[in-house]
Structure formats: C-alpha cells, structure tokens
C-alpha cells in the first residue's frame, strides 16, 4: 500500500471512530434526558438502554446507518461480576460496523460500571475489559476499539484519575505503549486514549468513554 493510500485509510478509520463515538454520545444523552436509568442497574441494563437509543438515532439521523449488534447471550450478573480470566467471557458488548466496498469495518465497545469508591469495579474495568482487547479476544482484526465506563459515583475527573492510577499499576500486564491521555470532553462525557501492543496481531488504540450516570 502506498503512503498516500495509507494516509487515506487512516483518515477513513479516524472518521469512522468519530462517527461511532458520536452515536454513543447521542445514545447516552437520550438515556440521561429521559431519566431511563437507575444507578443500581447492572452493566447489561445500562447497555440495553444505550443500544435501544443507538438503533433509534441511527435509523433516524444517519445518512449511512451503522449496524448495531449487542451481545446479550450468556450475560448474567454472576459472570459479569466474576474475576475469571477474560478468555472465559462472552463476546464484546456492542459492535458497530459499516460495510464498504473494501470490506467491513468494526468498532468494538466493551462496557463496564465504575465508581470512584469501588476499587473492585475499577480493577474489573482493566482485567475483564481492557485486557480482552490486549489478549486479542476482541477486535483482533482491527487497530482500534473502545471502552464505555458507566460512572455511578464521583465526578468524571475523580474516576478518570482512579482508572489512570490502575493503568499505571498494570502497565506491563496491559502492554501499554501509550499512556492514559485525555482527548476531549462533552457534556456528561470525557474521552481518554490508551495504546497497547499485542502478540501476533496489530497493536491497538482504545478510546475510553467515561459517561456520567451519577
């Protein structure tokens, strides 16, 4: 592939990531605005509402709609909260994809609850979420993916600080090649970026979307 084509492919990839991030933000706004949530919900209940609004917005407002896939199969409170090795887990929570003449492009989103006062949730965000991308269980054919953090307690900055501290502790285990870095913020959401090396497949960048559900 020529340098020009590589540059063009990178621009297309970045545009696709931005579209997916925008759809996630719009769906989050719809859930918040309708007050259709409770902080006692488990991860799957939050994700169900997010996906419902993704479908509604996608069909109504997107000129070229994405395909939204939600993996509910096998999701129970017990296996979502377990500390089992990630290879025993189900597929990624949400997949957004678009079919082009050159093939299908996917944006995989793994969703976790986090709370500044619950270190177990912060730990699971990394061990049962990020690690699945690092181990190439998720997005093994792509150089990008995402985490959605449902923030249940504390402000976004405090939760981001806890997640960053944990990333520093897990630097070797998570194969970090790009440290936790702030990207941008919008009402109710802050986005961060990390980069990870992987064995046998392309390295990956992860967009971390922190969503305020307090």
Key phrases:
214 residues; alpha/beta; 5 helices
What is the 3D form?
Answer: globular
| Strand tally | 7
Strand content: 25-35%
Query: What strand order characterises the main sheet?
Result: 1-2-3-4-7-6-5
**Series of secondary-structure elements, N-terminal to C-terminal:** HHEHEEHEHEEE
Unreliable residue runs: 74-89
Summed over residues and divided by their number, the pLDDT gives a mean of: 88
Number of domains in the coordinates?
Answer: 1
Q: How would you briefly describe this protein structure?
A:
With 214 residues, the chain is α/β, with parallel strands linked by helices.
Could you characterize what this model shows?
With 214 residues, the protein is an alpha/beta fold. It has one domain. It is 40% helix and 29% strand. It contains 5 helices and 7 strands. The chain has a 7-stranded mixed β-sheet, sandwiched between helices. A hairpin with a 7-residue loop joins β6 and β7. α4 (119-134) packs across α5. The termini are far apart. The relative contact order is 0.14. Residues 74-89 have low confidence and may be disordered.
Protein topology:
Layout: H1 3-33, H2 43-61, E1 67-70, H3 77-81, E2 94-100, E3 103-115, H4 119-134, E4 144-153, H5 156-169, E5 176-186, E6 189-196, E7 204-212
Parallel strand pairs: 3-4, 4-7
Antiparallel strand pairs: 1-2, 2-3, 5-6, 6-7
Helix pairs in contact: 1-2, 4-5
């Amino acid at each position: 592939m020529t340098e020009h084509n590589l540059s063009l492919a990178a621009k297309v990839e970045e545009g696709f990531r931005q579209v997916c991030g925008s759809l996630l933000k719009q769906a989050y706004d719809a859930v918040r605005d309708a007050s259709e949530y409770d902080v006692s919900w488990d991860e799957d209940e939050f994700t169900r509402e997010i996906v419902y609004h993704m479908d509604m917005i996608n069909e109504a407002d997107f000129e070229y709609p994405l395909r939204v896939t939600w993996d509910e199969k096998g999701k129970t409170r017990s296996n979502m909260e377990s500390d089992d090795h990630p290879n025993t887990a189900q597929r990624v929570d949400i997949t957004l994809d678009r079919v082009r003449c050159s093939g299908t492009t996917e944006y995989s989103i793994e969703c976790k609850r986090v709370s500044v006062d619950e270190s177990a949730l912060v730990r699971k965000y990394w061990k049962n979420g990020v690690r699945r991308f690092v181990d190439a269980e998720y997005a093994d054919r792509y150089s990008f993916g995402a985490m959605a953090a449902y923030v249940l307690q504390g402000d976004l900055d405090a939760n981001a600080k806890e997640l960053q501290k944990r990333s520093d502790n897990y630097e070797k285990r998570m194969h970090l090649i790009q440290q936790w870095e702030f990207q941008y913020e919008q009402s109710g959401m802050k986005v961060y970026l990390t980069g990870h090396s992987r064995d046998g497949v392309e390295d990956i960048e992860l967009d971390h979307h922190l969503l305020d559900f307090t």
